[in-house]
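User: Round two. Same drill as before: sequence, then structure, for each protein.

Assistant: Same drill it is. First protein:
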Amino acid sequence: MGELQSRLKVGLPLGLASIFFIFSPDLGMPWLFYIFVSLLGFILLVEVSRLLKAPLSYYVVGLGLPMLFLPPEGALLSLLIIGATRAVDPSKEEVAALFSLLLIVGGLSSLLLIQNPKLIFTCVLSVCIADMGAYFAGNYFKGPKLSPLSPNKTLTGLAGGVLLGSIVFGLIDGNYALGVAITMASVLSDLLESRIKRLLEVKDMGSFLGAHGGFFDRVDSHLGAWIVLYVWN
């Protein structure tokens, strides 16, 4: 239970602050939501850039920030084109930088365009519940490992997390299929972040949150969920 308590100590304050910013458009302050997303994007990009050597570190921030405000389709296509120019024998850092940009830019540019505070909140809540469901199911039932990228995750944890997260989403929004898609996307984006850390040979993407790592480590699963939520709607 120590790990769970540790997660809650960090997650609850961040969650309460996020709820305020998510619903700020309904309070007549839509600009506050844009500031929140922009600041989050800047922090995530800086976390990644600090793990890279120059000039690649400058490219991550210089390319990533403007792309946050492009439609996700255009931003992701641009990144794929850029990646194609380095498709022959790329370095580990280059692959990690591209994966990071795809996840951060794709997730946050999608978030900016969803423009439905209740739907965003339901998505965030469902992903958090899915993460807790995976934690409890994985620890209680054990079972085979999900992936070498994340040795602490199990298939039973995946099933428990997806089941619980999709039920919560469906009960609030009524769309259980979207709930399943969102929770599955959250797992995939979490695994992609684990792959990025393997490429960069680091335990955490940042140190803003002390022993809990960085903001990227905390929002990685949400980024993929926001992409799916935008595409679905």
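Second protein:
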Amino acid sequence: MNTNEKIHSVITWLQRLNLKKPLIILAGLLVFILIMDNIVMPIYVRLGQEYEIPKITELTYSDAELILQDQGFKIVLESQRYDSRFPPNYVISQNPPAFTRVKKGRRVYVVTSMGERYFKVPVLVGKGERDAKLTIQAAGLILDHVSPEHSSYYPEGVISEQSIQPGREVKAGTKISIVVSIGPFPDRFLVPFVIGADLDAAERLLKKAGLQVGSISYQVTDKLLPNTVLKQSIEADTEVFSGERIDLVVSVLPDENAEAAYDSGR
């Protein structure tokens, strides 16, 4: 017998008994108790029940939405942010946290990933060195090397080259190098001191000074490593014209072919 049938039965019984007023009041209380016990209290208990919110982080937004809806909760996209740990559209965080006990219908606020952030490489060539450094920092990049070089086009202190082309998209924290002009090539240069340096290092020093390696001859010695510069044709700190050739004498071990030693050293 359901609740309605119980209440109807009690009312019919009271009508048949034709009870006086005190008994009618007592019977009314009985009906009230039946209503509270069978209708009101079950509804109240169900409304007060709490359920655990499932863990939805590390899932796609659509999967998280389906899981929450299936368990009687609502999903709300609170915000999105870049995060290299998660692919785009994955849930990074949720509020309330997973396993919190709440009532049905509760809103669960989530933050989703936009994936790893990429930056467009800015134009650095033509900027002053200080301006270029600030631009690199603002773009989320890291300045790697700064190389000074002569330039006949860019004035002193201006960026003449950059290692990554402008407009290319790169990850945050990518290293970029720049070349800073030190002005045009001078007409005359000072010869650097290259005695004691190995042949490769001597060539680099001469090139940096605006000069060239001339003829190379060899001298046998067992006191030095092969391809060590023993003599230079023009003394260090001598002023010469751009492109001047400097002849070198380099060491070679006894009983070795000089050309072979030279080739191996290069």
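The helical segments are 3-17, 21-48, 61-70, 129-138, 199-208, 258-265.

User: Perfect.
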